[in-house]
Write a structure and sequence with these properties.
about 220 residues; Rossmann fold; 2 domains; eight-stranded mixed beta sheet; two-stranded antiparallel ribbon; 6 helices; 10 strands; globular; EC 2.1.2.2
């Protein structure tokens, strides 16, 4: 099936670019219906415009609370015809208003091997803890902070001379591939969502017929 995507960004939009490039190359059966940024100057908006994708700026500062901000996002996404939402460097915590409008159809890419190092500055957290391997995770979004069901992960070794900047750039390259990998699997019908069986439970997700991870990055350094 062709995925109708709404992509939410806050910055440079490199993961958005990976999606656009994969679509253009015929590697991803999807259409980006709308790119929304909460920041007017986000460079990712230019990436979308260059690809002929509609854009919108919806500032969180123009809304009194998170719920009303998310309601504005839902309205714009619905009008554009999006049925899946990708948080691609979107630096806002979403609420049930957005999640209920797109049940089990909101994805996020996070720069760690969750559940390790959730929240902001995951790369710095990895370095501070002295781990030897970190990476990135694509997961469905739920009401928690980076706690939703994991769809796929890719590992990146932490090198002895890594700085936060160097590690971040190497993880980012893996993010691009992993996000496209997961979206392509969803488009191919390999995503199964099992609804929660109790109020306290949460949805269980399976990606079937495809690898759940892209493996460990290799390096010649």
């Amino acid at each position: 099936m062709t995925l109708d995507l709404g992509v939410l960004i806050s910055g440079r939009g490199s993961n958005l670019q990976a999606i656009l490039d994969a679509i253009a190359a015929g590697k991803l059966d999807a259409r980006v219906r709308l790119v929304i940024s909460n920041r007017a100057g986000a460079p990712g908006l230019d990436r979308a415009r260059e690809a002929g994708v509609p854009t919108a700026v919806i500032s969180h500062k123009d809304h009194p609370d998170r719920a009303s901000f998310d309601a504005a996002l839902v309205g714009a996404l619905g009008q554009a015809g999006a049925s899946w939402v990708v948080l691609a460097g979107f630096m806002r915590i979403v609420t049930s208003v957005l999640l209920d409008a797109f049940p089990a159809r909101v994805l996020n890419i996070h720069p760690s091997l969750l559940p390790a190092f959730p929240g902001v500055s995951a790369q710095a957290q990895a370095l501070a803890h002295g781990v030897r391997i970190t990476g990135c995770t694509v997961h469905l979004v739920d009401a928690g902070t980076d706690t939703g069901p994991i769809l796929a992960q890719a590992a990146v070794p932490v090198l002895p001379d890594d700085t936060e900047e160097r590690l971040s750039e190497r993880i980012l390259a893996r993010e691009h591939a992993l996000l496209v990998h997961v979206l392509a699997a969803i488009a191919a019908g390999h995503l199964t969502v099992h609804p929660p069986t109790t109020v306290a439970a949460r949805a269980r997700v399976e990606l079937v017929g495809v690898p759940g991870a892209l493996g460990v990055e290799t390096t010649n350094d």
